[in-house]
Automatic annotation (TrEMBL):
Residues 34-203 form the CAAX prenyl protease 1 N-terminal domain. One of its GO terms (molecular function) is metal ion binding. Zn(2+) binds at residues 276, 280, 354. Its cofactor is Zn(2+). This is Protease HtpX. The chain crosses the membrane at residues 68-86, 149-167, 173-198, 290-312, 324-345. PANTHER family: CAAX PRENYL PROTEASE 1 (PTHR10120).
Length: 422
């Protein structure tokens, strides 16, 4: 690599972003308080609170080591002639520009995944296991990675080939064509993921008949919400952590509850969770989220097109002749600070949506109390960080911290109908 000013600027952008993210994590651990927050006394024990802090410290240490190692490998690759060597090898193997580009970017992605593998294993089998979360077997761990690799090759490869081809052949308007392709692709994925992709990783079964299912179906019916089904997902295959999520569009909207959630919540609390999810749908959050993501993709691709015209930059990193794939790789690095900023912006929007969905759920039969109890149970099951640092919240939190959600729910008062009333 030749240390020209533009080349150094690209590296500085990358290092700045990593440093800011590391600073947020470090501040987060530093700001832990020893006293169990009042709203969670009685649900959380002092012992669980202390354990959640040890868990946070251990996972933060691993995360910092993981990101530091990945950054060091990348910097070594860039500064030791890696671009020139890999570009040469990709061109020798595939004569066409698109083929060489796929090989170049594919090899980088594969190398990154392989370098990360020991950290992923350490996370599951050491850190998560030490705190009693891990239930992943070695077989599931390996199969997950193989399935992920297969999907990346088939879906990621096809999408990347289309984008490379567009930038290679369509001139100044390429970013628009690439934007259309990526948007269509995400739209299709949104529709087919629940039926084709998620079942590759988990089993989904209809929730058995009983009080819980009855309560959930009654609530959806009273709300006039067309629910395609209530499913139980075998989340316990990988972790004891619990969650619930919504999938599908149009008439095929389903709620999926982790099996690990069912024994931790009462039917009334699960109704509050469903009400929160229905709130997202009713308030247009899912649609708005999709279009905001689309806008962000357009901005990224438009800037990528401008960036590709930056003369001399690729040569500074050792490319013997400029290409779309080396340009896109460098763009991905230079783009990091802006991506972090846009991520923070979209997290701020998401947190706002979460507060609105909570307010919607506060009007469900159990009132704000039912959702508050559900959130408390969830925070304990997952040993959530109760006092995250504001910088980390701003950068990475898609949901408000649990104490903020509890405070807002408490401000709603006891709710329309007291718990247990008909
Ligand atoms: Zn939500």
């Amino acid at each position: 690599m030749t240390p020209t000013l533009p080349a150094l600027a690209v590296l500085a952008a990358l290092i700045f972003t990593e440093a800011l993210s590391a600073l947020a994590r470090w501040l987060n651990v530093r700001s832990l308080s020893l006293e169990l927050p009042a709203p969670l006394r009685g649900i959380w024990s002092e012992e669980a609170y202390a354990r959640s802090q040890r868990y946070l410290a251990a996972s933060t240490r691993l995360g910092l080591a993981r990101e530091g190692f990945s950054l060091a490998c990348l910097l070594a690759f860039l500064s030791c002639g890696g671009v020139c060597w890999l570009d040469g090898a990709a061109r020798a193997a595939f004569p066409g520009e698109v083929g060489a580009g796929l090989a170049f970017l594919g090899a980088l992605a594969l190398a990154q995944a392989l370098l990360d593998l020991p950290f992923a294993a350490w996370s599951a089998f050491v850190v998560e296991a030490r705190f009693g979360f891990n239930t992943t077997t070695a077989r599931t761990f390996v199969l997950d990675r193989l399935k992920g690799l297969g999907l990346a090759v088939i879906l990621g490869g096809a999408l990347l080939a289309a984008v490379l081809w567009a930038f290679q052949t369509l001139g100044g308007m390429a970013w628009l064509a690439a934007w259309a392709v990526v948007t269509a692709f995400s739209g299709v994925l949104l529709v087919v993921a629940p039926t084709w992709i998620l079942p590759l990783f988990n089993r989904f079964e209809p929730l058995p008949q009983g009080d819980t299912r009855q309560a959930l179906e009654d609530y959806a019916r009273d709300e006039g919400f067309a629910l395609d089904g209530v499913f139980v997902m075998d989340g316990s295959k990988r972790s004891t952590k619990a969650n619930a999520f919504f999938t599908g569009v149009g008439k095929r909207k389903r709620i999926s509850l982790y099996d690990t959630l069912l024994d931790k919540m009462t039917p009334e609390q699960l109704v509050a969770v469903l009400a929160h999810e229905i709130g997202h749908s009713r308030l247009g959050h899912i649609r708005t989220g999709f279009w905001l993501g689309t806008l962000r993709t357009g901005l990224t691709l438009g800037l990528a097109q401008l960036f590709l015209g930056w003369g001399g930059l690729q040569e500074a990193f050792g490319a013997t002749r400029p290409s779309i794939h080396v340009g896109l790789m460098l763009f991905a690095l230079a783009w990091q600070p802006l991506a972090l900023g846009l991520g923070a912006l979209s997290n701020a929007v998401s947190r706002r949506f979460e507060r609105q969905a909570d307010a919607f759920a506060a009007r469900a039969p159990g009132g704000p109390q039912a959702l508050a109890e559900a959130l408390k149970a969830l925070s304990l099951a997952n040993l959530s960080n109760l006092t995250p640092h504001p910088l980390l919240v701003a950068l990475e939190y898609s949901h408000p911290p649990v104490l903020e959600r509890l405070r807002l729910l408490a401000a709603h008062g006891p709710g329309p109908r007291p718990s247990g009333a008909a």
